[in-house]
Amino acid sequence: MKNIRIKRGQERRILEGYLWGFSNQIEDSVRDYNPGEVVRLSTRNGKFIGVGYVNPHSLIAVRILHQDDIEINTDFFLSRFGAARQLRQQIYGNEEAVREIYSESDYVPGLIVDRYLDNLVVSFNTAGMETHREAIINALQEVYKPAVIYEKSIGSSRKLEGLDENVGLISGDLPKTESWVQFAGIKLPVDLEKGQKTGLFLDQRLNIETIVPMVAKGKILDAFSYTGVWGLRAAKSGAAAVTFLDSSNWALEQAVKAAKQARLGKVCEVVNSDALQAFKAFAEQKQKFDVIFLDPPSFIRSKSSFKDGYRGYFDINQRAVDLLESGGLLVSCSCSYHMRPESFEELLKNVLRRKERSGRIIYKGRQAPDHPVLPAMPETEYLKCIAIQVD
Q: Which residues contact 196 (CB under 8 A, 6 or more apart)?
């Protein structure tokens, strides 16, 4: 195993638990290393720091796997997965839909694993995880004993790592009939092949379970609804009418299935449209809502895109405020790490000022506990959820 030195003074964050070493912090050239190659890290003076893997093509040149000098093999992943599984069982017991492995927060940077019943959906997001694919799959099979392992290695993170997307069945046979899971108080269909990312947006569980039963009254708009868990939980909790708005016809079909299964179809309708176009149409029709759930995709994927992304969040939120009845409630979310909590709250304050309306925050939430946060790595905390009553 080769050794890479960190520049003088740059090792402190790593010793405190930060798991990334950026290319400008590395003393030695990593140009000739293979992407995903395991290395030892040391200070400039040769003091051992940890074991990680390197990618010469990435801004994040090194990702730390362990602070002890150990081999990275199946036993390593068995230990990591066993600890992650124990934590989820402590939190959720036998829940049917859980994020079992959350990358850096479970000390396996670049790996995401979601479980739906006894099926696993896996995302290898970095060269280091791709390199250890066989050991990871063996460890997953031993710890979880899944019926199916399905891969959804897609998205911008793989592109940044110089990796192509990879989707397909790893082991087992896909269910011949549709699978249903209980999530946030609602039965939802799960399609391992067609679902976005790794399936459901499990990070919103706590926010849905906490805020929706308190506010589910009157006429509801579930914008960027995907398969509709916000609106479905609102309908179950007593909302008079729920509109699901999404650009994906497939996702809306899933929401309709779930509404029928829960016998909520009479209060639910769908709008298959771009959100901004739909908001404009609602305004022209003078439609108003008592509650709007706003959970858009990430508008800010890097520091360089912050200004454009900020404008996107501002625009969609001000259009939502225009559609609210006086005294209505906006539940607004951002999954962009670069939009920090204080910036998001400031954005909502500025939206209200622009629209000449006042408001009161009644709830602030974050990602669910199966997406734990490393205190030394703010990057592991990304989700913001604010419920604000708008006068």
A: 226, 248, 251
pLDDT tens digit string along 333-366?
999 999 999 999 999 999 999 999 999 999 999 9
3-state secondary structure the chain: CEEEEECCCCCHHHHCCCCEEEHHHECCCCCCCCCCEEEEEECCCCCEEEEEEECCCCCEEEEEEECCCCCCCHHHHHHHHHHHHHHHHHHHCCCCEEEEEEHHHHCCCCEEEEEECCEEEEEECCHHHHHCHHHHHHHHHHHHCCCEEEEEECCHHHHHCCCCCEEEEEECCCCCCCEEEEECCEEEEECCCCCCCCCCCHHHHHHHHHHHHHHCCCEEEEECCCCCHHHHHHHHCCCCEEEEEECCHHHHHHHHHHHHHCCCHHHEEEEECCHHHHHHHHHHCCCCEEEEEECCCCCCCCHHHHHHHHHHHHHHHHHHHHCEEEEEEEEEEECCCCCCHHHHHHHHHHHHHHCCCCEEEEEEECCCCCCCCCCCCHHHCCCEEEEEEEC
251 phi/psi in degrees, rounded to 5: -60, -40
The per-residue pLDDT for range 133-190, each reduced to its tens digit, is: 999 999 999 999 999 999 999 988 898 899 999 999 999 999 888 899 999 999 999 9
Taking CA atoms, 208 is separated from 76, 167, 294, in Å, by 35, 29, 12
Map out the domains of the chain with their CATH numbers: 2-66 (2.30.130.10), 74-177 (3.30.750.80), 181-390 (3.40.50.150)
- Distance between CA atoms of residues 324 and 335, nearest Å: 23
The pTM of the full predicted model, rounded to 2 decimals, is 0.95
Phi, psi of 122 (to 5 degrees): -115, 140
